Amino acid sequence: MEDKLEKLNQVLTPDYNSDFWSDQVKSEAGILLDTLQEDDWTHLLNTWQSKPAAWCIRLVEASLLSEKPRIIRLLVALLKRPEAQVGAAVAAMLLEKDYQWSPEESLLSDLERHLTLASQNKDSIQRLMSRLPA
Prior knowledge:
This protein has one domain (2-131). 68% of the residues lie in helices and 0% in strands. It is built from eight helices and no strands. The protein has helices spanning 2-12, 18-35, 38-47, 53-62, 70-78, 84-96, 108-117, 122-131. Helix 2 (18-35) crosses helix 4, helix 6 (84-96) packs across helix 7 and helix 7 (108-117) runs antiparallel to helix 8. The longest helix is centred in the N-terminal third of the chain and has 18 residues, at 18-35. The radius of gyration is 14 Å and the shape is globular. 28% of the residues are buried.
């Protein structure tokens, strides 16, 4: 378990140039996400809170390349982050993955908080909010 998660952490931690991240590293992170087992996902869901916002944003971006169902649960959990840029990245990714609202998930208060704090990328948050029941 720790080997895959440690490798994922090593891939997500550096502050990459955006082109290098997109062209070279993001696909590696996406592949690593697809190799995670159930215990790895549980550990990841319990540790993302201690990671910096940039790490979380890279995790969100890499999630585009993963088809694992657990990625949606992780994205929804990441909406709890206080940083508006993380919230906007998550909202954009949930839209990209054609997120279907589940009544067990309460997203509205987190999305409203991110919308209030966001200085840019508000459109993704607003579009995702429009898909949720009032």
